[in-house]
Amino acid sequence: MNQNVREIKNNTLYFDGCDTTKLAATYGTPLYVMSYTDIKNRLEELKRDFTDRYPGARIAYASKAFCTEAMYEILKQEGACIDVVSGGELYTAQKVGFPAERVEFNGNNKLPKEIDQAVSFGVGRIILDGLQEIELIEEACKRYAKKMNIMIRITPGVAASTHDYIVTGKKDSKFGIPLDEDVFMPIVKRVLESDYLTFVGLHMHIGSQLFENEAFIEALDVLMDWAAKIKEEYDADVKEVNFGGGFGVTYTNEERKPYSFFLDPLMKRLKQRAGEIGIEVPAAVIEPGRSIVAEAGITLYTIGQIKEIKGLRKYISVDGGMGDNIRVALYQAQYDGVIANKAQETPDETVTVCGKYCESGDIILNDFKVPGSVQMGDILATYSTGAYGYSMASNYNNNPIPGVVMVKEGQSDWMVKPQSYEQIVQNNVMPQFLA
Predict the structure, then answer these.
(1) Which of 295, 362, 404, 406 would give a disulfide with 321, using CB separation of 3.0 to 4.6 Å?
(2) Are 103 and 124 in contact (CB under 8 A)?
(3) DSSP state letter for 227
(4) How far apart are CA 262 and CA 392, in angstroms?
């Protein structure tokens, strides 16, 4: 875990130079807090170990992890690309003037209006995920007199070691095109023969929160086997290979690996396989999302009701919950944290931290150690919530989605303002027959 931005002073948690208790007092809770310094450090590591080392390499940030205008502005300034999977993510990129050629449009069921939006904007790549998309893309290209670069997403049939809900590379997956020759090769041929599409390469993504590199290399070998078939059958070169993302992060006690642990062996194998096939080494692309922003984020809560069930459990309730972090209920995800205003007191009591939502599964932290002095009004900080916290937030129970504050070396400011009650109901209308 990146310790540079998190420190404890005077019994208080500081994050990127900011006193978290003062952040809670100033901006209110629940509150997402994102560290600019941590995000910048991750991007610098990626540039040092990937784009600066390998000609043509690209970082395409996986927007689904955390998508805001300010996040896109950082990526724009850093020269990164972005991977979008919806019209909303693409619209956000358009709002900040993100360069169209640095946008890659992914997803298993791109809507006709989203394809139209992507083609009219002129995105750099569309990642093809099915046969039916081809006609939709061609129709949009005709309307706008454009030609689109196409990568084809494969399903490599590799089972990565992670939660079943975030495995995407096995054969039985809604993502990618199955590697049956009578299915896959005609799609390649269709793209190659199109007047509106330019085939540039192959894409894979085997899953998320991965800590070993063998599955990546195994999947790459599968991909390059098909690159060889494409070369042999159609005399067409795979010019780009997208490795996907999924690099693991630290939530509790996982040992995070440096990006080079994954990328160096992948690049070595890519060069070797390209030589065997007789093609130029393809440009490499990666799609990190979680690994850039997860540990750059914390969430602050105010502790409310404390309820002890003798002989069983003590519940500590906070003013947020599954509406701002659904991953615990969805994936049985585990987090760590601290009582931010009692950060140096000995954690000697085990509790369950729960949210305020009307669900028994609304749990934030299981078997969490806190000081025996914890009480209503204390501030809880949960770590590594920068990915899939805000981006998966909901209005369940008509609770507002919390705001996001960005911190940088002791400075703080809104990144996303919190929702109001009025904003929750602003699109409600009364049917005329009820008036």
Answers:
(1) 362
(2) yes
(3) H
(4) 27
Phi and psi angles of residue 412, each rounded to the nearest 5 degrees, phi first:
-145, 150
Written as one letter, the residue type at 435 is A
Q: What separation in angstroms does the CA of 310 have from each of 67, 307, 314, 352, 370? A: 43, 10, 8, 14, 17
Catalytic residues: 358
Cβ–Cβ under 8 Å, residues 278 and 231: yes
What's the CA gap between 277 and 274, in Å, rounded? 5
Is residue 104 within 8 Å of residue 124, measured between CB atoms?
yes
Asked if residues 203 and 154 have their Cβ atoms less than 8 Å apart, the reply is: yes
For residue 232, the number of C-alpha atoms closer than 13 Å in the C-beta half-sphere is 9
d(CA 40, CA 51): 15
Q: Phi first, then psi: what are they for 75, rounded to 5°?
A: -65, -40
Distance CA 165, CA 287 (A): 18
Per-residue pLDDT of the chain (435 residues; tens, 9 = 90+): 445 799 999 999 999 999 999 999 999 999 999 999 999 999 999 999 999 999 999 999 999 999 999 999 999 999 999 999 999 999 999 999 999 999 999 999 999 999 999 999 999 999 999 999 999 999 999 999 999 999 999 999 876 544 444 344 445 678 789 888 999 999 999 999 999 999 999 999 999 999 999 999 999 999 999 999 999 999 999 999 999 999 999 999 999 999 999 999 999 999 999 999 999 999 999 999 999 999 999 999 999 999 999 989 999 999 999 999 999 999 999 999 999 999 999 999 999 999 999 999 999 999 999 999 999 999 999 999 999 999 999 999 999 999 999 999 999 999 999 999 999 999 999 999 997
How far CA 136 is from CA of 116, 128, 175, 196, 227, in Å, comes to: 8, 11, 18, 11, 25
Taking only Cα atoms into account, the Rg of the chain, rounded to an integer number of angstroms, comes to 23
Q: Give dist(CA 131, CA 138) in Å, integer.
A: 12
Residue 415 sits at φ, ψ, to 5 deg, of -105, -40
For 184, the token pair is 């896959």
Quote the Cα angle for 46-50-53, to 5°. Answer: 135
Whole-number Å distance between alpha carbons of 71 and 156: 31
